[in-house]
Amino acid sequence: MGFIDDLFQKKEDERYKIPVEKDFKKNFDAIKEILTNCDDIIYRDFNVGQDQKMRFAIIYAEGLADKNLINEHILQNLMILSRMANMNIETLKQKIYEVIKDGTVAVTDLREIEDVNVAVDVILSGETILILDKWDKVLMIATRGWPMRSVSEPSTETVIRGPSEGFTETLRVNTALVRRRIRDPRLKIKQFQIGRRSKTDVAVLFIDEIANNNVLRMVKERLDKIDIDAILESGYVEQLIEDNWRSPFPQIQNTQRPDAVAAALYEGRIGIIVDNTPFALLVPSTVVSLLQSPEDYYERFFISSAVRVLRFIAMALALTFPSLYIATTSFHPGMLPTDLALYVAGTRMKVPFPAFIEAFLMEAALELLREAGIRLPVPIGSTIGIVGGLVLGQAAVQAGIVSPLMVIVVALTAMATYAAPSYSLAASFRLLRFILMALAAFLGLYGIIIGLFVLLFHMCTLKSFGVPYLSPFAAAEMTLGDFKDVFLRVPLHMMRKRPSYLHRSDNDRLSKKTADIFSWEGDRNEQK
User: Fold this and answer.
1) N-to-C CA span, the chain
2) For residues 223 and 237, what is the distance between their CA atoms, to the nearest angstrom?
3) Are residues 355 and 499 in the same domain?
4) Which of 180, 266, 381, 453 has its CA 20 to 30 A from that of 414?
């Protein structure tokens, strides 16, 4: 047995097993007793065979199963076509499974089940159960067919150039979108259930020979330790398997884009897709990966590098700009040019509050507007956000509550925050911004420096599934090649190796022959 088979080997729990018996009535009543008072469960019993002496029954959940498939390919075949079978009742009893599997039921998936509880779980998952007379097993027939949202562009990760497909709330649709981009038999998809009551389907995706086995083992161990009644969204899983729940930084990346998941799997990372949510998880994650956008690799490297530098500057502004305003106006006005210092002092002459209170009020109002815009319907939310921000800012300046420069600082900070590709990372920066503002109010620039040092120390100690959060800067095995895709993105033909801090077995991403085609040396050799 290989590493993957051994790691994902299913462990049967014998404590709650109810074996299927040969008595048709006992099996039928056992399932009916478990699903009592469930009016959406449909029971249909009927007789089969030329002499109508064999009793069958199907059980399914209305709304989760495809009723047309059940009527046309199961009931019709069993009740009508089975009468044409040229065999007596005794032969039919002995070979009933072969008759149904090979010549009667026209479905893609047909399996035997020996546990009544498993049969109930299958019914609640949208499949249909067929109970056979005088047979100590029940048959699971694949009939899932619940309503689902069509594939559309992800609303939280829009790009100018790139695929417009996004994940949906259906697990199998999401895995198909990834499989479509990785047509490699070494792409493994291991599926299991989490949640005592919800029994939510969870799929772990990785590429064998590229993914790190130690990271894969940690993922499986942490998922196995989750013992909760329900998993309603991938955020539940994210919070239960992350390394440090006390950290304000997200240690697991979430995305709605199948191309982002495929790119991460090619790098050697591991994807986790949870049913009933369009957000997939990627591990391990670093602060650099959270600041990268899929569009960075679809444009030429000049454009991508310029945008990425702008993004890093925006994140620095989003974290420190209001606190720098507070520190310079309250403690260090001498750092400003004389004319600018006089102008700032003049604009704040009628403001009755200290710079910290002024900044805190404006930042709190901005957060309130952002939250209100999210909760309101889309047509109203955008209007409230724009009109509310303009009216509130103008009214606050005219009332003398804040200075005009403070409005500019808050507006630039908000725009810088929106430049982050990851909403979770931007939310962390928004929270830490208030802490730096408080430190700047008490200690000025010294407080900001102390806060940044503490923040840097925390990030140096933070890990995501064994990988340093500040990789490649804090990686144990730092290589020059890892910096080809950090602040700048080098040309694609120069990114031959996968990141070394992920410790993959297959390190080559681009062959040397292909890379030489784009080099000056390769061109000269070709001309000769």
Assistant:
1) 53
2) 8
3) no
4) 453
Instruction: Please spell the DSSP secondary structure of 280-334, one letter per residue.
Output: EEEES--HHHHT--GGGGTS-HHHHHHHHHHHHHHHHHHHHHHHHHHHHHHT-GG
Do 48 and 104 fall within a single domain?
yes
Is 479:500 a contact under the CB 8 Å cutoff? Answer: yes
- Residue 506 placed within a domain: yes
Mean model confidence pLDDT for the chain: 84
Strand order in the sheet with 54-61: 41-48, 54-61, 128-131, 138-141, 110-113
Give per-residue pLDDT as tens, 46-94: 877 656 567 888 999 998 888 888 888 888 777 775 555 555 555 555 5
For residues 284 and 464, give the distance between their C-alpha atoms in angstroms, rounded to a whole number: 5
Instruction: Decide if 474 is inside a domain.
Output: no
Domain end residue (candidates: 266, 285, 304): 285
Tokens linked to 243: 């390394």
100 and 20 in a common domain: yes
Q: State how many domains the chain has.
A: 4
To which H or E segment does residue 45 belong?
strand 41-48
Do 244 and 348 share a structural domain? no
What is 467-518 written as a DSSP string? EETTTTTT-SS--GGGGGBSSSB--GGG--B--GGG--S--BSS-HHHHHHT
pLDDT band at 43 (very low <50, low <70, confident <90, very high): very high
Check: CB of residue 228 under 8 Å from CB of residue 195.
Answer: yes
Residues sharing a CB contact under 8 Å with residue 66, sequence separation 6 or more, in sequence order: 143, 144, 145
**Contact present, 66 and 60 (Cβ < 8 Å):** no
Give, as one character, the DSSP assignment of residue 275. T
Residue 194 in domain: yes
Please check whether residues 340 and 461 belong to one and the same domain. yes
Question: Which residue, 318, 240, 253, is CA-closest to 290?
Answer: 253
* 8-10-12 Cα angle (round to 5): 160
> Is 95 within the bounds of a domain?
yes
List Cα–Cα distances, 444 to 4, 332, 336, 337, 405, in angstroms: 55, 7, 14, 18, 19
Residue 218's domain comprises: 171-285
pLDDT value of position 232: 93
Under 8 Å between Cβ of 232 and 198: yes
Max Cα-Cα span within the chain: 105
CA distance 360 to 357: 5
Q: What is the rounded distance in angstroms from the CA atom of residue 135 to the CA atom of residue 354? A: 82
**pLDDT tens-digit readout, 451-493:** 999 999 999 999 999 889 998 887 666 677 778 888 888 888 7
What's the token pair of residue 188?
A: 């493994």
Instruction: Report the distance separating Cα 465 and Cα 395, nearest Å.
Output: 49
